[in-house]
Amino acid sequence: MWHLLEPLHALLYYAPEAFDEAAALGYDTGERWPSYFAWRAAPLGTPGRDRVTSAFHSFSPAMVARYVPAVWDTADPAEVLAARLRAVDRTYRAVLGDDTVTGPDLAEAAALARRAAETAVPSGPSGPGARPLAEANARLPWPTAPHLVLWQAATILREHRGDGHLAAVAAAGLDPVETLVSFAAIGAAPEPVFESRGWSPAEWSAARDRLAARGLLHPDGTATETGRALRAEVERRTDEAAAAPWTALGPDATNRLADLLGTPWLAAIGSGLLPAENTLGIGKV
Which residues of 16-49 are buried (b: 16+ CB within 10 A; e: fewer)? Predict the structure, then answer.
């Protein structure tokens, strides 16, 4: 389900319509990072560098500091969130087409995805505070248009999975840069792709050395069997932590949603907007 939903969420970070909306707010769109940090962090309020660094995990603190908290000097979170929905509306209409956006299949998919998303952030010990990005997005009011409901549900569910993934890498004893180095080591993407997260060559090399000392990497930087086993355990824990919404939705409704997502997923992938190689490992098994 994550592989089906993630591209529908991620269009926001690459679509020209989203950059248009960001530019209208006053953001520099010569690079994608000012709007990325604004779009993704706005549900948290006006978070500072430390909170964003912690919640986003994979970005170097120095990179986060280049954009946060400066992004809130350009536009406040309420303005960013309103523009975010305008960006999604325009992007979905351009990429999926008006017939799909207004069609019954997408409306049904949106309703099912919302049902799953509404169970993603429970109350109790594992609820408030345990999943900061999922929780922040879940607190936002639901839009009325089905295609915007689908995007918001996809966002809650992907952040729910991401928050759980951070707990899994912490349990594996991996710090943020080690998380990326170990992921590159199993072939999730070439190392240069991970340069977008802002870690210096010295920081990357030091993380390699730490992982090698644990027996997780070969001298050439590829994962040992122990390293691959550790990453497999991280993914298993991530899947387990992400399972609750789909368990609540049930297998029949989940399978129905998967079928309904086929057309918009193909449109998102076929748009050419999303990078073929990415730090998330989409398409890798």
Answer: ebbbebbeebebebeebbbbbbbbbbbbbeebeb
Taking the C-alpha atoms of residue 188 and residue 151, their distance in angstroms, rounded to an integer, is 25
pTM score above 0.85: yes
Low-confidence ranges of the chain (pLDDT < 70): 122-129, 278-285
Q: What share of the chain is helix, strand, coil (3-state, %, to 5)?
A: 70, 0, 30
Tokens matching residue 43:
């549900």
Cα separation, 233 vs 214, whole angstroms? 16
Measured CA to CA, the distance from residue 134 to residue 241 in angstroms comes to 13
d(CA 274, CA 271): 7
How many H-runs (helices) and E-runs (strands) does the chain carry?
17, 0
In sequence order, the β-bridge partners of residue 217 are 223
| Distance (Å) of CA 248 to CA 106, 112, 117, 119, 242 | 21, 11, 10, 7, 11
pLDDT at 90: 98
Scored b (16 or more CB within 10 A) or e, 253-263 reads: ebeebbebbeb
CA 215 to chain centre: 30
In degrees and rounded to multiples of 5, residue 223 shows phi and psi of: -75, 140
Phi then psi for 168, rounded to 5 degrees?
A: -70, -40
Check residue 276 and give its pLDDT.
82
Beta strands in the chain (DSSP E): none
Question: 3-class SS at 70?
Answer: coil
Question: What is the C-alpha separation between 107 and 162, in angstroms, rounded?
Answer: 26
